[in-house]
Amino acid sequence: MELDGKEKLAVKELGNAVNTAIEQSPIVADAIDQIRRMGFEPNLNLKLEIGLQELEEEFVEAAEEIDLDFTEDDLKTLRRMKIKVEE
User: Fold this and answer.
1) Is residue 1 within 8 Å of residue 50, measured between CB atoms?
2) What is the per-residue pLDDT for 34?
3) Contact assessment for residue 52 and residue 3, using Cβ atoms and an 8 Å cutoff
4) Is the pLDDT of residue 66 over 90?
5) Is the confidence at residue 69, as pLDDT, over 70?
6) What letter would DSSP give residue 38?
7) C-beta of residue 65 within 8 angstroms of C-beta of residue 59
8) Could you read off the pLDDT of 36-45 as tens digits, one per residue?
């Protein structure tokens, strides 16, 4: 599949976001520190492959028509996760 400039930028931003999440992860930092305390310097080489698949038109149209009924508990949970829901 050939990507245009906007799509290539979106894929690059996704790759950067994943890289940043790994770099800033306290879990990853703790694991690296543990290895260093053992007397080793870890060298990490991660390969990220991002594949895209075009959505079929009828799926996109169906997704736009979905009407969800949330309970008050659902809405509270989403708010705690900082997810805004338009009612």
Assistant:
1) no
2) 96
3) yes
4) no
5) yes
6) T
7) no
8) 999 999 988 8
